[in-house]
Amino acid sequence: MIRFSVWLGLAALGAAFPAAAVPPIEAYGHLPSVDMIEISPDGSKLALFVGDEHNRQIQVRSTADMKVLLGAKAGDTKVRALMWAGENHLLITTSTTAWVYNLSGNKREYLQIVDFDLAKHKPREVLNGVVTGVTRLLNTAAALPTVRMIGGKPIAFVEGISFPDRAGVLTLIRDDLETANAREIALGTVTTRGWVLDQAGQIVARVDYDDKPGEWTLSTGHDGHLVRSMRGTYPIDVPAVRGFGRDASTILVGFPGDEIERHREVALGGDHPSEPIEVLDDGDPVHDSRTGVVIGVRHTTGLGVSYSFFAPEDARLWTQVTKAFPNAVVELASWSDDHHKIVLKVEGGKFGAAFFLLDTATHHAAWLADEYREISGDDIFERKLISYPAADGLPIPAYLTLPAAHAGAKLPLIVLAHGGPGARDEAGFDWWSQALASRGYAVLQPEFRGSTGFGEHFHAAGYGEWGRKMQTDLSDGVKFLAAAGTIDPARACIVGASYGGYAALAGVTLQSGVYACAVSLAGPSDLRPMLATEQAAGGGVGISLRFWQRFMGASSRNDPALDLISPAKQAAKVTVPVLLIHGIDDTVVLFAQSKTMAAALTRAGRPTEVVTLKGEDHWLSHSETRTAMLKATVDFLGVNLPAGTP
Description:
The protein is of the alpha+beta class. Among the domains are: 381-526 and 566-640, Alpha/Beta hydrolase fold, catalytic domain (Rossmann fold, 3-Layer(aba) Sandwich), CATH 3.40.50; 527-563, no CATH class. The strands form eight sheets. Strands 29-30-32-31-33-34-35-36 form an eight-stranded mixed beta sheet, sandwiched between helices. A five-stranded mixed beta sheet has the order 1-28-27-26-25. Strands 10, 11, 12, 13 and 14 form a five-stranded antiparallel beta sheet that branches. The termini are far apart. 44% of the residues are buried.
């Protein structure tokens, strides 16, 4: 049986403040107080990202007593991942929004990797100054690094980008972290998308994808000698190489299907995939951190996540873990190589949103820190999974969060639409919906058709339904809650980011009489220019453009039908207040999309404010701007949809 204890090591940075009646909006806007906790291979140390916006640190602490072994200031650096390379090297992946001269027309998000040597107490930028056999390497990574222990030494393999013939190609770099000696070991072509390496650092697989015809190729083999194993044409849904299969003699590939993603193994040097591995269907394989082979699977469900492990001891352990945290979503954050020490992220129930360290030798689950130090478990509202019928009868799953005082009340409603659209909301703590519920609003998060995680059939039901049934799936939720007496249909506002921002704008242009207001964060408003940007970025017709056209039901980027589902082209139909919010450094949905919508509303006699988030990207990576977004939204709602007496 797993028992609980309290470890005071992170209390100063992670412990919750005394609960107030209602946490300030900043409590939800601040980035997590503790994030990305990674345990070292032998379980003796924790690496974590801690602190507030003005005092962010990357720390390394001892698991024995939580003593700080390293504290490196991070400032406003956008840290994306922490990864151990042996016991004395911590690989830190960050990103920067930048424009590179003579490389791209618009700003892009670029990854950098820093190796922090704990023994020398010294950071070093990986890929900086590396010269390949052909040309100088760009000091940016194309993906997270791969770590291998070779001869007892940590080696980082990083996919960089070089320009042998004026076109950027993936270039595989081997970096000996102990000696800081980096060298090129493989040069890809313009179609190369990545490699798989064995424990000795030898290439055993390469993936290629020719974007324009959609031709995908998997080559596998031994000792760097590869042969073509599989080939096929996949214009949009491309097979996903997941690394090794259940042993290091196979490569695991996820193939798109009519209903679910199926995983098959391909033997190294072979040309026939295995039968589907049913236990992995529509799941995310869990790999052993030391050997890289698949040891289990993570499935996302409406109520949370579930894990299945192949080894009986791992399966028994996880059964105990889930029993120890009833009514909560439990995530495996990281574990030591021997699985004896495990970092768990627990959300929901009486636990709030917190991290625990489980020691399987003592069966103690020690509290490490609350993810958000100003929000206690008592401040978190229950998030229920419901279902309602769309107009055509399709069941639409949705998350519903209700404020504390709602008995018998017809509440004001926020329809909070997720981005993607090929994405989904998940169970557990959600800072945005919790912030809105804390201000007295019911919050509905519909998983409209086209969302992922509910089967390929449900996902495919969204094809061609951008601004159409994907949109009415949202308003059907308003009707459902109104019929149940939960909400006041005259007091509903639609809010969202990215595609959700588009849905917010479409809700008050393509539809009328449903919503009393709309808030769009980084929402596309004019689809023809958006597709033109995608085509230019891809160098012509490619997978990205085909993806958007499939959802929009457009024959080309110049299809006149796009104007009928472009909010900026339908701005004259707006009769309610609209708020536009956008990060100036957004590289996914350009800031120009919100400027276009604002100009269209002004021409239509409905001028609106554009809240510009300076220095912010598409993902709200800074506390200051995330908080500014929440404050602007809450202030707008306070004027146009007050949560008090209607």
